[in-house]
Amino acid sequence: MSLERFGRNMKRRGRNVPREVNKVKRTAALAVDQALVLATPVDTGTARSNWQVSLDAPNDDTIEAYAQLIGGDQSEVVNAQEAMEQGKISIGKAKPGQEIHITNNLPYITALNEGHSAQAPAAFVEEAVEAGHGAAKIQKTDTGKRN
Predict the structure, then answer these.
(1) How many domains are contained in the chain?
(2) CA separation (Å) from 145 to 51, 114, 138, 142?
(3) Do 102 and 29 contact (CB within 8 A), yes or no?
(4) Which of 25, 35, 66, 89 can bridge 128 by disulfide, Cβ–Cβ 3.0-4.6 Å?
(5) Is the pLDDT of residue 146 over 50?
């Protein structure tokens, strides 16, 4: 390979870096968001519904449960689906260099993460971050392969 061809290849690859990094970032954020939503203990569905994804800056508000007291398993499913769909939409809009924030501003989310609910183990937030890290490693490996 000539030095000129090598230079062209490097420029082409360099132009793709922001797009590829953004793919990995979005994959990791989606995995974290889904893991958080699914691992959050459920009583009324408010904690599960309050995993909110925003771009550029963290969200600082709280919301009501998507499905308030529909009844048992059905409201759990609806709350999880709606929270994950909201996250998926927001994450899908992230551009290269744009920060993705996943927040839950309920005053008792820390207590839930510390294990104050028999429904979820302590440190489910940290486990969700690890799930995102794992997803990013897989995505990074996949994007690094030549076709």
Answers:
(1) 1
(2) 33, 40, 11, 6
(3) yes
(4) 35
(5) no
Across all residues in the chain, what is the average pLDDT?
Answer: 91
- In contact, 87 and 28? CB cutoff 8 Å: no
The Cα 15–Cα 55 span in angstroms is: 23
- The predicted structure's pLDDT at residue 137: 87
Distant-in-sequence, close-in-space partners of 48: CB < 8 Å, separation ≥ 6: 37, 40, 42, 65, 76, 79, 80, 83
Structural tokens at position 60: 């600082």
Tell me which residue range forms the domain holding 53: 3-143
Burial letters for 116-129: b for 16+ Cβ neighbours within 10 Å, e otherwise? ebeebeeebbebbb
Number of residues that make up the chain: 147
The proportion of the chain whose per-residue pLDDT surpasses 90, expressed as a percent, equals: 71
30/147 Cα distance (integer angstroms): 25
Residue 61 has pLDDT above 80, yes or no: yes
